[in-house]
Amino acid sequence: LYWITNNYEAALAQAKSDGKHVFIDFTGFTCTNCRWMEANVFPTPEVQALMGSMVKVQLFTDRKQEPYLSHKKRQLEQFGSIELPLYVLLKPDGTVIATKAFTRDRAEFVAFLKKAL
After folding, report:
1. What is the rounded distance in angstroms from the CA atom of residue 26 to the CA atom of residue 23?
2. How confident is the model over 68-81, as pLDDT tens digits?
């Protein structure tokens, strides 16, 4: 899967251009639960199929310089949380479809992704 890294604006522009929804992964360099999701949930065929139809962007928030401070601020101000990981589904115009905090329940995560269908 192709990911845009640390560029929210580029992801939104790509989504508008392609007519696709956006999957935001608010993540951290030192986030154990983020790595668990990347290793155990993202690679599953059903998740790959669902995420394959979206523009995917990872926004890291756990460093004390830019762009990480701005990502953390966006996460708090737009989505009301600084929890990691936090997953967000957006329409191409930036409208929020759904948000999801960390879960080890694959079916719950798949149900979240399906909200973008």
Report:
1. 10
2. 999 999 999 999 99
